[in-house]
Design goal:
Layout: H1 13-21, H2 24-36, E1 39-42, E2 45-48, E3 54-56, H3 60-66, H4 82-87, E4 102-106, H5 117-126, E5 131-137, H6 149-165, E6 170-178, H7 189-194, E7 197-201, H8 210-221, E8 228-229, H9 247-257, E9 260-264, H10 274-283, E10 287-290, H11 302-311, H12 325-331
Parallel strand pairs: 4-5, 5-6, 6-7, 7-8, 8-9, 9-10
Antiparallel strand pairs: 1-2, 2-3
Length: 334
């Protein structure tokens, strides 16, 4: 990994920070706007073209203000309309890490996780979470030590018992439930209804034709017990492209059925990606930013999912796990 270090004077710090955190396209647009205003922008500051006098540079806010713009988070600096909004003072509020109230997709030692429910609950309490869903794998995912019906029922009971020992966080008994090739779910309907959270997921038959995959996903989304569609495209960065399907139809079905599309925070997934997050926002589709953690440390991956959602300009009001406990409880009909 190559790392470049740039040292600038304090008077230029904001300009350098802005210059190196936006995309090339964003910065080109910034320089063009500055030129129209009789200014020059670079990593050292904002200067008048007429006499070379510095007019800004110490802070990012100062740099943007010199161009008649509202400051915006770095994740938004992609030249996707943010400059025009900033000139109008209409930069939208996007979700941030402090908005996250819990995690609705994690695994315990009951399936393929490392830590027990108690350790995960303690970690959630330490992070100030309101709630945490334990979503171990369902029975057909044998590679993930999926839980049979009997084992899942035992796991629900275990989660309820651990809850008594951790009153500082609301523990939800859930499951990451396999979607079979026909769009059916991996547990009987009665068990699905007993779970607090159902996270439906595809882990097989990735090479289906797009039309068939679309119907598979639509069928799963039509099951009234499904709350979240996990890692919707199935991509693994650097290893596997996502499977093909009609994203528009799936997003429409998710919205119609009240299902959140996951922004999986695992660094190898980041699924949905930022562009798909933007599409979800535009379509009014709720997202859920989860870690898919398999140990306590991986709960810290939440920052990557939040950053991805921020790049898609997703506001807190469109994030399922930014809801306070009482609102989430109502949303999940608990």
């Amino acid at each position: 990994v190559q790392v470049d270090m740039r040292v600038v004077a304090p008077s230029s710090f904001g300009a350098a920070l802005q210059y190196f955190t936006g995309s090339k396209e964003h910065n080109v647009n910034m320089r063009s706007l500055a030129n129209e205003l009789g200014l020059k922008v670079n990593e050292y500051g904002v200067f008048r073209l007429a006499d070379g006098a510095r007019v800004a540079g110490e802070t990012e806010e100062e740099v943007y203000a010199a161009l008649g713009m509202q400051w915006m988070p770095p994740e938004m600096r992609e030249n996707r309309g943010e400059i025009e909004l900033a000139r109008k003072g209409q930069v939208p509020k996007v979700v941030g890490l402090p908005d996250i109230r819990g995690d609705l997709h994690i695994h315990s030692e009951a399936s393929d996780g490392v830590d027990g429910v108690g350790a995960l609950a303690a970690a959630a309490e330490a992070r100030g979470y309101d709630y945490l869903a334990i979503t171990d794998h369902s029975q057909s995912l044998t590679v993930g030590n999926g839980l049979s019906v009997e084992r899942m029922l035992e796991n629900i009971g275990h989660i309820r018992t651990v809850q008594e020992e951790h009153p500082g966080v609301h523990l939800l008994a859930g499951a990451e439930v396999e979607i079979d090739a026909k769009g059916g779910l991996d547990y009987p309907q009665g068990l699905l209804e007993e779970l607090d959270v159902v996270v439906a997921a595809v882990h097989s038959h990735f090479k289906m034709a797009p039309k068939e995959m679309t119907e598979r996903l639509l069928s799963a989304l039509s099951n009234e017990t499904v709350d979240v569609l996990a890692h919707p495209t199935g991509r693994i960065i650097g290893e596997r492209e996502g499977y093909g399907f009609d994203m528009e139809r799936v997003m429409r079905a998710a919205k119609d059925n009240g299902v959140a599309l996951e922004v999986n925070s695992f660094p190898e997934r980041l699924d949905l990606n930022d562009v798909q997050c933007a599409i979800a926002r535009e379509r009014g589709v709720t997202v859920c930013i989860n870690t898919d953690a398999h140990n306590v440390r991986q709960l810290d991956n939440m920052v990557y999912g939040v950053a991805t959602a921020r790049r898609g300009w997703v506001p807190p009001g469109m994030v399922l796990n930014a809801l306070p406990w009482t609102a989430l409880k109502d949303r999940l009909d608990l």
